[in-house]
């Protein structure tokens, strides 16, 4: 009898084993889906803060914080939600609710590195902030720094528990930004290279969901990422005057509204709208950069619609002529059609500011760009906006990433969606972590974020293949003495476009470099360029496998982009003898020096996500070994 009972128990255990393993697997998958949603909602909270600050919505901003939240900076701190609201109202809003006519308060949070705690209930994020402030006819100012932010998961969702600000530069527009070397405090890193490469911690959910529920959540996350890619692509096409590519992103019945000017319809309307930015392509010396910053993302529960709100910062003009600033709120509504392709169904642009580079945004022009002949809207019953009216700011109806659907949500699951969705955040995390490391000359951490066989272009020198070679080249070039407090190079990377490969095990990611250099002895300078990175998941950790950087322009603050010396960037070049001493493993892939005002080709790793149109220069996955 004992033997029979033992055999029966053993058989029961064998029968239950697959069910137990399946339950454990569902618990792990549930936690992964929850945690990836958390990362996205944390980014949404921070973006909401920036968007609401534009409109002076201080009470709404207060709702983003916990009751006991803390704001800290070098000179002091503010504790508690009510005190934070009052502090922001006084310091950013001039003591008033809303944003007064003639007042501008752009607070741009970019370059996030987000790490979740092991239990998924708290997180830390690192962000750059660029602040552009003005009172029309009176003053205009810059400020910038790094925030280290603590987040907490509450009963109401993710909230900010602590924001510690480390100022990096500031100054009036007329003089440019600078910093005091004696008081400069650099933000400590809250992550190691390995931690930056782990988007989702290893844990099990206490209440596992069904496989169908997990697959639905993962597919929504992946859809949101693919739709956000479309917005990034629109910005990159606009930069280069690729108006046909930009127009092809719109659905046949798309509506495009510019507040103050009218409504354009469909891809043909998009082409007419884009004519305000000039003729297709870029003429010699033409600048048309339009970074799309601080995405506020919301995906419909049916999986077929996504809303992305961004801040567009315009840098335009003709070399040797007049340069212009602009800023606008741009809201995209994207839909997935029956063919499975995401398209832009509606776009609304709310111009906030336009000014000449010389005068700055304290002396604004009409905020909307002039409408050229042939570019008229299909309907024009709008009023002008800008400094003469308070900005219209989208108020998030919820801080949840997933919005309720008016109809019953039926989401077609995408095989492997969770791993592919994670790749978007892994690519962004390690790309941005790299930028923060090189800010502080942390070369060993910089190299550690690369894969074992990863490669990196060293500006003006060549390509180095393998983690050890990457490290050796950085130390040979810059030494290990750490940063000089008299000078800061602030490498801000933003606007990611991610192409996922191998079911989420590797990806290519395009980001925009917005580098602001600050000096303790005078006005700063800046560098703009394009990174095309390759990332891989190596031992469960995201790492950079390849790094290609093409500088587009380098400018001193005083002269701006229209006053660039065509030969100026060549001063950073080195001799053939010096290059030989470094002995790079391969040459640089693109331009050695920033070409502007000459217009040089810029490569893309992706074809048009709607039409499939190939770019003039297509970049493919590389092992770093490239011929001349």
TrEMBL record:
Gene3D superfamilies on file: 3.10.450.50
Signal peptide annotation: 1-23
All residue ranges annotated as the SnoaL-like domain in the record: 35-164, 228-347, 429-547
Taxonomic superkingdom: Bacteria
Keywords: Signal
InterPro entries associated with the record: NTF2-like_dom_sf, SnoaL-like
Name by which UniProt lists this protein: Nuclear transport factor 2 family protein
């Amino acid at each position: 009898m004992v033997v029979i009972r033992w055999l029966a128990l053993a058989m029961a255990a064998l029968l239950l084993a697959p069910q137990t393993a399946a339950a454990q697997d569902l618990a792990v998958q549930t936690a992964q889906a929850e945690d990836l949603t958390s990362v996205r909602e944390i980014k949404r909270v921070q973006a909401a803060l920036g968007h609401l600050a534009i409109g002076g919505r201080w009470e709404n901003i207060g709702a983003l914080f916990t009751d006991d939240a803390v704001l800290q900076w070098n000179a002091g701190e503010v504790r508690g939600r009510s005190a934070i609201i009052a502090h922001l109202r006084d310091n950013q809003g001039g003591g008033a609710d809303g944003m007064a006519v003639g007042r501008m308060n752009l607070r741009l949070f970019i370059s996030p590195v987000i790490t979740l705690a092991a239990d998924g209930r708290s997180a830390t994020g690192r962000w750059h902030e660029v602040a552009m402030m003005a009172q029309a006819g009176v003053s205009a100012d810059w400020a910038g720094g790094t925030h280290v932010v603590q987040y907490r998961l509450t009963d109401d969702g993710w909230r900010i528990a602590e924001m510690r600000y480390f100022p990096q530069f500031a100054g009036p527009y007329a003089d440019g930004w600078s910093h005091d070397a004696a008081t400069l405090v650099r933000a400590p890193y809250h992550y190691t290279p390995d931690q930056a490469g782990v988007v989702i911690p290893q844990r099990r959910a206490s209440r596992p969901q069904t496989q169908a529920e997990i697959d639905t959540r993962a597919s929504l996350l992946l859809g949101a990422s693919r739709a956000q890619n479309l917005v990034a692509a629109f910005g990159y096409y606009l930069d280069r005057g690729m108006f046909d590519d930009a127009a092809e992103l719109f659905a046949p019945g798309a509506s495009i509204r510019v507040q103050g000017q009218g409504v354009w319809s469909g891809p043909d309307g998009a082409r007419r709208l884009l004519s305000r930015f000039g003729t297709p392509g870029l003429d010699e010396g033409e600048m048309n950069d339009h970074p799309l910053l601080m995405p506020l993302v919301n995906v419909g529960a049916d999986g077929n619609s996504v809303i992305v709100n961004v801040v567009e910062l315009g840098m335009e003009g003709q070399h040797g002529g007049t340069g212009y600033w602009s800023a606008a709120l741009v809201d995209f509504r994207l839909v997935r059609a029956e063919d499975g392709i995401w398209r832009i169904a509606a776009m609304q642009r709310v111009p906030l500011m336009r000014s000449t580079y010389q005068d700055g945004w304290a002396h604004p022009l009409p905020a909307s760009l002039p409408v050229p002949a042939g570019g008229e809207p299909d309907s024009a019953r709008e009023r002008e906006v800008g400094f003469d009216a308070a900005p219209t700011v989208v108020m998030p109806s919820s801080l949840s990433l997933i919005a309720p659907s008016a109809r019953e949500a039926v989401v077609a699951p995408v095989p492997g969606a969770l791993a592919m969705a994670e790749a978007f955040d892994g690519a962004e995390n390690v790309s941005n972590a790299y930028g923060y490391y090189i800010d502080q000359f942390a070369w060993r951490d910089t190299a550690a974020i690369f894969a074992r066989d990863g490669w990196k272009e060293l500006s003006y020198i060549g390509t180095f293949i393998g983690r050890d070679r990457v490290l050796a080249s950085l130390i040979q070039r810059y030494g290990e003495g750490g940063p000089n407090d008299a000078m800061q190079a602030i490498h801000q990377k933003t606007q990611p476009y991610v192409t996922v490969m191998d079911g989420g095990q590797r990806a290519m990611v395009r980001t925009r470099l917005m580098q602001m250099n600050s000096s303790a002895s005078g006005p700063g300078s800046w560098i703009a360029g394009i990174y095309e990175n390759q990332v891989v998941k190596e031992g469960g950790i995201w790492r950079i496998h390849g790094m290609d950087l093409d500088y587009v322009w380098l400018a001193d603050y005083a002269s701006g982009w229209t006053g660039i010396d065509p030969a100026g960037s060549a001063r950073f070049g080195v001799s053939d003898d010096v290059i030989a001493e470094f002995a790079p493993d391969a040459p640089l892939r693109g331009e050695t020096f920033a070409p502007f005002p000459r217009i040089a080709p810029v490569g893309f790793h992706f074809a048009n996500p709607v039409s499939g149109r190939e770019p003039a220069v297509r970049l493919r996955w590389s092992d770093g070994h490239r011929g001349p």
